[in-house]
Design a protein that fits this description.
- The longest helix has 15 residues.
- The protein is of the alpha/beta class.
- A seven-stranded mixed sheet has the order 5-4-1-6-8-7-9, sandwiched between helices. The chain has a two-stranded antiparallel ribbon with strand order 2-3.
- Strand 2 and strand 3 form a beta hairpin.
- The radius of gyration is 16 Å and the shape is globular.
- The chain is built from seven helices and nine strands.
Length: about 200
């Protein structure tokens, strides 16, 4: 079994929400802690959490135990900068790592069952990238990248994040259907509808 780490992206300031999205209530905790809890139920060799905006407020309301918490001071540059920042750190300090699973903190329907299915698909496939198929037939995260893509991941910037690489290497990608669990929370209305339907 190759060494896999999980990267949870939670550095944005959610300007449209007017409140740190990571701390919105979900089940008996908040969105970010819910994502962390899901990851603790899958086999991994480390969990990296990237924070940025509202760092102090967020870190005080999660359990950082067993997490590698990184602060991206360049969070305003978008998801790409957080991925780049963390993958550079992994490559430098943990050269034994062979795969990274990248996920977001604002997709609360992503659970350990889905993440395990993604990992199993990746292990069964001969492809080096395994990701999630969205309702609009686009590919996105959660996604697993083999080490051969770490160099390109470490050079990302902007808001598009890893989708740039998924599009570039679409012929090398394996995916699982995530249309039933992908519900990004981009506004208060998104959150209220999702919360009402799942509580």
């Amino acid at each position: 079994m190759s060494k896999l780490v999980v990267l949870i992206l939670a550095a944005g300031n959610a300007s449209r929400m007017g409140f740190p999205k990571q701390l919105l209530k979900w089940k008996n905790t908040n969105l970010l802690q819910h994502a962390i809890n899901s990851v603790t139920h899958i086999e991994n060799d480390g969990i990296f959490l990237v924070l940025g905006a509202n760092y102090e407020k967020i870190i005080s309301q999660i359990n950082p135990y067993n997490l590698h918490v990184l602060k991206n001071d360049a969070w305003k540059q978008g998801l790409g900068s957080s991925i780049s920042f963390c993958v550079q750190e992994i490559s430098k300090c943990h050269p034994e790592i062979k795969e990274v699973l990248i996920m977001l903190a604002d997709q609360p329907l992503i659970d350990a069952y889905f993440l395990n299915a993604l990992i199993n698909k990746h292990n069964e496939s001969k492809n080096e990238i395994t990701c999630t198929l969205y309702k609009d037939q686009k590919l996105g995260v959660p996604a697993i990248f083999n080490k051969s893509y770490f160099e390109e991941l470490s050079q990302l910037n902007g808001d598009k994040g890893a989708k740039k690489i998924l599009e570039k290497y679409s012929d090398r990608v394996t995916f699982i259907d995530g249309s039933h669990v992908i519900s990004d929370i981009d506004s208060k209305e998104d959150y209220e509808v999702l919360f009402k339907n799942h509580h």
